[in-house]
Amino acid sequence: MSAYNRGGMAVPGNSEDDLSSAGQSAAPSPAVRESMVLQYLIQPVIASLEPMSASHATTLRQAFNRVEQHNPGFCCAFVENLLRRGDLDVNNDINFHETLLRLAYEEERQAPAAGPYNPAANPHLLQLEKRAKMLKEILSGIPQLIGDRKRFLEAIKDIANAIKEMLDTVSLVTASIGNAQRKQSLDQQKKDFIKYSKTFSNKLKTFFKDNSKTDVYISANQLIYQTNLILKAVRDY
């Protein structure tokens, strides 16, 4: 049987007959692609250029942030056109969703689990950062594990536990916020996170029936994106 936790995550058992269909194929969100490309591809590349010229790297970073803010999708189009110049087709030669996960994995492994605030102001903030980082690391590591059923099932259990722990911590942070508007905003982010964790669970169940890896990749990217939105809401607080 499949076991579910509070985040809606299914942990498949040994019987694939227990896995029900999840319906239609996942539809990639443009906002997810745009955010992931900027955060996990463009920004790390710019950071790697800082030893050559920190000031120019800063200018370039600000330029990409500004143009993406005013023209959403610019970074994706920029990368896709670079690939086309090399006779690579992002739809046929490269699994873009898998690539984004692999890029996120490398970045999350190296990034510190800390936000731009004083955790002493709220003891749960640093805990949330650590749990979010752990979840994103496991999700972004899916391409390396999905071909090994045993390891992938273990990863699914780890994801389920990480989702539960993150939701518990988000609840603690939300309860500690005095501002009603900010509390409502974070609570909405939590609801969205739960919704997409359930979608991810459904895509996992479908994968064990039809081996649709891309749908799992798309949904994992969406869940990483939702995790980052929660962190942004908390950091803004």
TrEMBL record:
Residue ranges annotated for the Programmed cell death protein 10 dimerisation domain, each copy included: 34-88
Similarity remark: Belongs to the PDCD10 family.
Pfam family membership, one: PDC10_C
Membrane topology: Peripheral membrane protein
Molecular function in Gene Ontology: protein kinase binding
Organism: Macrostomum lignano
Gene Ontology biological-process annotations: regulation of Golgi organization
GO annotation, cellular component aspect: cytoplasm; FAR/SIN/STRIPAK complex; plasma membrane
Cross-referenced InterPro entries: PDCD10, PDCD10_Homolog, PDCD10_N
Leader sequence segment: none
Descriptive protein name: Programmed cell death protein 10 dimerisation domain-containing protein
UniProt region (Disordered), positions on chain: 1-27
Gene3D superfamilies assigned: 1.20.120.1950
Keyword terms of this UniProt record: Cell membrane, Cytoplasm, Membrane
Cellular localisation: Cell membrane; Cytoplasm
